[in-house]
Amino acid sequence: MQLHRTLVSKLLLVTVLMFGFGFALVPLYDVFCEVTGINGKTSNVPATVLADGIDTSREVTIEFLARPNKDMPWIFKPEIRRLTVHPGEVHVMNYLAENPTGRMIVGQAVPSVSPGQAALYLHKIECFCFTQQQLAAGNKMLMPVQFYVDPALPAQFSTITLNYTLYDVTANWQGSAATENLGE
């Protein structure tokens, strides 16, 4: 009987430790990514244009991707798929959004950059991802992003991919109760 109690105690301890490790994994991963710079997250704060000038001696290709989350019914895509830029040059690129449903939907775009280390060098001056986007039933809109690539981008990066995932946040939107009746 003593052997069974010892075994049960050890199994419970292992279970608690595994749960604790799983709970701590997300913050530990965030710290790891912050330290190594491999997270691909971009800033949610508008950047200011640097006065360093434009590096015309090199070109960087920016690839634009878009995908709505599985629960987001919008049609969401970049206006163009690729753009070649000089570091330091400011560009505006549009994403196209269409709400084919019969109700107003609020969307929130979450950006990511690949390779992750390049996220530190892609600066958004203005971006639809900074705020939630409302789109009435059956409507379309252009969602611009104004950006530049920092001239300090290491030479090893010749292509940067900017990807937006669009989420339906209508249920979390402050005015959702008032606007639910508008779409009906």
Automatic annotation (TrEMBL):
* One Gene Ontology cellular component annotation held by this UniProt entry: plasma membrane
Q: So which residues are the signal peptide here?
A: none
Superkingdom per UniProt: Bacteria
Q: How does it sit in the membrane?
A: Single-pass type II membrane protein
One matching Pfam family: CtaG_Cox11
Predominant cellular place of this UniProt entry's protein: membrane
Q: Where in the cell is it found?
A: Cell inner membrane
Q: Where are the transmembrane segments?
A: 7-29
Q: Any idea which GO molecular function terms this record carries? A: copper ion binding
* This protein's UniProt keywords: Copper, Membrane, Signal-anchor, Transmembrane, Transmembrane helix
Similarity section: Belongs to the COX11/CtaG family.
Annotated NCBIfam families:
PRK05089.1
Q: What is this protein called?
A: Cytochrome c oxidase assembly protein CtaG
